Amino acid sequence: MTTPTTHHTAWAAVADWLRHQGTTTVYGLPGDDMDLLGALEDTPVRMVLCRDQRNAVHMATGHALASGRLAVCTVGKGPAVTNTLTGLLEASSSAAPVLLVAGGTGLDRVGTGAFQELDQLAAVRPFTKHAERVDRPERLPAALEKAALTAVNGTPGPVYLEIPDHIAQLPVTVAAPWRTAAPHRLAPDPDALEQSARLIAAARRPLLLVGGGARHRNHDRSVERLAGLLGAALFTTASGRGTLDEDHPLHCGVSGLYTVEPAARLWEETDLVIALGSRLEETATFGWPDRAGLPVVQVVAAEDSVVTGTPGMHVLGDVARTVDAWTGLLDGHRPDEKWAERIRDVRRLLAERAARRAADAEAAVPGGGPTVAQVLTALDRAVPADRVLVQENGLQDMWSYYYPHWSCGTAGGSVVPSEQTPLGFGAAAAVGVKLASGDRPVAAVCGDGAFHLFRAELPTVADAGAAVLYIVLDNGGYGWLQTNLDRVSGPGSRFAFTADRPTGNAALARAHGLGHWSVTTPDALEPALREAWECCARGTSAVVEVRVALADQPPGMAGAAGDFPVREDQ
Questions:
Q1: Scanning 50, 87, 253, 525, which has its CA 20 to 30 A from the CA of 202?
Q2: Domain enclosing residue 215, as ranges
Q3: pLDDT of residue 518 exceeding 90
Q4: Is-contact 564 286, C-beta < 8 A?
Q5: Per-residue pLDDT tens digits for 209-267
Q6: Are both 298 and 380 inside the same structural domain?
Q7: Alpha-carbon span 278 to 280, nearest angstrom
């Protein structure tokens, strides 16, 4: 028989649950009720006290994406909850398993106009897989377990649990040992496997597209082995980067918005796309050929991510189990030699093109200032190869999305914003990525606009001991918006999104004990990044600001046009 355990408050029960889950870090900004912090005092759980609730959820999302495990965030009530909504939207779009625990108005005061009273369930439900308010203390253990299991299973995503004032101080009895919130890796249906294997075997020019849903499911390089068996060109979505060995002889880059010539031609020539763990969102399929007959075999964990309306089929199940099953079913398959030769030609031409575009960018920058291509080259040389690059999605930082202008190589990782691309996500998420990654180097590349939105968290970065190398590309403001304005109004507009003014980041970083370097010439780039990385290796975050020009646009762009760039090959 199991002996029940009684905790003196609801928050003490939450703290005990966190300890049993193996939670290492909680992110957040608690409200006036400090009982959770009190309950965590004698546990090994780290509490990262943030300055903004949205950034707290971004940090938790970064932690979840980097670790592949449930991440936890806690906030107060009312406006504290509404401040998290952008973070929840991003966690949902990123399929990140995040548990948000919030306070709430007591049941005895609901409907009275109580302080910070809000129907919080109605606010968060559109952005979460599951949302629950616990109005009775005996319901808390089951609610915690259900929320966590929902977050990590099926298509992962954020969940919400509300602990209102009237139960916060009541004792909670846990009748049985806590269950671990482990993901269940479901095997696909055998009939679907056999049918899809026949479709794959019939293809002569296949492409393998690896999405974010394959993250943490390719430990043994089984995806690369399947690609070799099929002779398939390997692509990733932006969120799938870091899953594959980008030095692999079949790897040809990033799909959709970030595909460059001549790799884009492979999408014109393929006769089958095999999509592993991708929802086939707009950025992943942007610029795909308008070929209604192109079949897609889509492998996703749950039906809510299936894309219908195109030829092909879907397979519901774990990516790793599906890949292993296909490898067995397709044993002895003979790939098309002409297609293999075509892929080798594309990889050779990609390398030549990258060298030309780096030289073109250098010539286009007025005054001989640093180019983003030079920044990425210096970063590659200065930071160890197993680094994780955390990105934003602005004008200049988009350079690093384009392979081979930036490559994760064999050992590198990547965390990017989802289709929602909230400004400042990457800068904040990098804290969670670092705390989830241990000794692994973490670098964040962001524009100055995104960094300005995040920099109120520099005290948090210092307090948390998260040694992140921030590379801030300073073009004077919101470069993407300025480029779109210039297209509409020309250079004489009375409105402006950029300006040549000091950022003030140096004094702010140094005030909190962080390293800071300013770079305005190419010669200073690599020395600054090496010194900054040495600072990080000693355990202190560093900020390197690099002055870049608006004319230095990413390699796949011919110009900005609203949400998406005009591709240079169009």
A1: 253
A2: 190-345
A3: yes
A4: yes
A5: 999 999 999 989 999 999 999 999 999 999 999 999 999 999 999 999 899 889 999 99
A6: no
A7: 5
What's the pLDDT score for residue 147?
A: 97
Give domain status of residue 180, yes or no: no
Q: In this structure, are 160 and 96 located in the same domain? A: yes
Beta strand pairing status for 5-7 and 172-174? antiparallel
- Could you give the residue ranges of the DSSP H alpha helices within 405-524? 425-437, 448-454, 458-464, 479-489, 505-511
Contact 446, 399 (CB under 8 A): no
Is the confidence at residue 365, as pLDDT, over 80? no
Residue 252's region, left for phi above 0, alpha for psi from -120 to 50, else beta, is alpha
CA distance 497 to 483: 9
**What secondary structure does DSSP assign to 343-375, as a single string?**
HHHHHHHHHHHHHHHHHHHHHHSGGG---HHHH
A 10 A CB-CB count for 149 gives 20
CATH number of domain containing 43: 3.40.50.970
Torsion angle in degrees (nearest 10) through CA of 398, 400, 401, 407:
180
What does the pLDDT average to over 546-568? Answer: 74
Same domain, 213 and 321: yes
DSSP alpha helix (H) spans, 203-274:
222-230, 263-269
The DSSP output letter for 112 is: T
CA-to-CA distance for 63 and 490, rounded, in angstroms? 42
Q: Confirm if 431 and 425 have CB atoms less than 8 A apart.
A: no
| Token output for 242 | 């870091």
DSSP state of 188: P
Residue 364 tokens, joined? 């286009």
For the segment 80-96, the average pLDDT, to the nearest whole number, is 97
In the chain, the number of structural domains is 3
**pTM: predicted TM-score of the whole model, two decimal places:** 0.95
pLDDT for residue 31: 84
Is the Cβ–Cβ distance between 50 and 464 less than 8 Å? no
Is residue 67 within 8 A of residue 39, CB to CB? The reply is no
Q: How many CB atoms lie within 10 A of CB 308?
A: 7
Instruction: Give yes or no for a contact between 184 and 253, defined as CB atoms under 8 angstroms apart.
Output: no
Q: Is residue 132 domain-shared with residue 241, that is, in the same domain?
A: no
How confident is residue 353, by pLDDT bands cut at 50, 70 and 90?
confident
Distance separating alpha carbons of residues 546 and 479, to the nearest angstrom: 14
Q: What's the rounded Cα separation, in Å, for the pair 534 and 528?
A: 10
